[in-house]
Each structure stands twice: as structure tokens, then as C-alpha cells.
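hiii so um. not sure if this is the right channel but i have a protein structure encoded as C-alpha cells and i wanna go backwards to a sequence. like what aa goes where. can anyone help
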């Protein structure tokens, strides 16, 4: 198990039954980056990856 898996498991355990919009996720990602600017690049990469999941070019 990777260290990050614990956070993912906590997210699933605490909020796994909730339904949210991608706009909600984007808003909270932006808030996180505003509070933690050192994570701007990884959050941007995650957001771009999620946005392009259905692209056939990759």
C-alpha cells in the first residue's frame, strides 16, 4: 500500500456514499491549491488527467 492510498481509503470511507458534481470537486481543488500553493502542479496534473479520461488520443 502506498502512503497516498490511506488518504484515498479515508475519502472513500468518509464520503464514499455522497454524490457530488465535478464542479464541486474543482472548487475544492482550487481551495486546496489556494491554501497549499506548493501542490499546484500535482493538482493541475490530476485535474487535467481527469478532464481528459475519455480522450482517445492518449
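sure thing!! here u go:
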Amino acid at each position: 500500500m502506498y502512503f497516498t492510498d490511506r488518504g484515498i481509503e479515508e475519502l472513500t470511507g468518509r464520503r464514499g456514499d455522497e454524490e457530488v458534481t465535478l464542479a464541486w470537486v474543482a472548487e475544492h481543488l482550487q481551495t486546496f491549491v489556494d491554501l497549499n500553493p506548493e501542490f499546484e502542479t500535482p493538482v493541475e496534473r490530476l485535474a487535467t488527467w481527469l478532464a481528459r479520461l475519455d480522450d482517445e488520443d492518449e
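oh and The mean pLDDT is 90.
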